[in-house]
Write a structure and sequence with these properties.
Helices cover about 25% and strands about 25% of the residues. The chain is α+β, with helices and mostly antiparallel strands and about 280 residues long. The radius of gyration is 19 Å and the shape is globular.
Amino acid sequence: MPAPERLPAPGVTDEGEIEELLAKGELTVVGRIREASNAVLFCTVTHDGASTECVYKPVGGERPLWDFPDGNLARRELAAYLVSRATGWDLVPATVLRDGPYGEGMVQRWITSAGPEGDTEEGALLALVEGEEAGEGWKPVALAEVGEGRTALLVHADDPRLRRLSVLDAVINNGDRKGGHLLPAPDGRLYGIDHGVTFHSEDKLRTLLWGWAGEPLTEEARDTLTRLAAELAEGTPLATRLAELITTAELAAVRDRVAQLLRTGTHPHPSGQWPAIPWPPV
């Protein structure tokens, strides 16, 4: 099966041009996104008459994490983007690592979104439903307390875009796939953001996208993982760049996870060693 066609980012036809704009443009800080646990600055970036909105996460604004002692979150964000690009699915907005007003940091294109639940019922990605059945078009995740001793079933859409993202998360070992990290764009594409806690050498997969756990991978996913395995081989451009961003053990673990997915041919189950769902889930 040929690699899936890369769709253009909203309003831009060339991903390389977006990367160049983010990497070389003049960053102007507009404000801070206060809800974030680390420093996240909303900016504009301008270069050669082109401009776009972006987020800038300076390394100096990161809170230390005991279980991610090596490197920094910004480099992991870039690594996630590079792996996403290698799959051909382009599920992570254009991302670069560069100097900015507050030192080195990750700069990523801003994606305007309707939010994780979409604008309409038809476009919803996550929901809480009564009873124990997910219903047609939905995949069950877990029961959730909704107050006054009541529970509801947390479900996510049986959406091929989410399914691709669940495979990417399994590859990069995403420890924080929350609902608020899902950005459906106006052009119909879906992006995932906030990939700072990824690539750990131990299994730390925490996600709301467990609905396919144990199910066979799609043919598209198997073909994509086969190509990705080749691109991760020692000495390739992708492997060489990743070795600059994550540790040797973490890079080996990426290869092992891809091999494991191909060997089992199924979406992974929770490991049971860590909470399977991030908190808070949104």
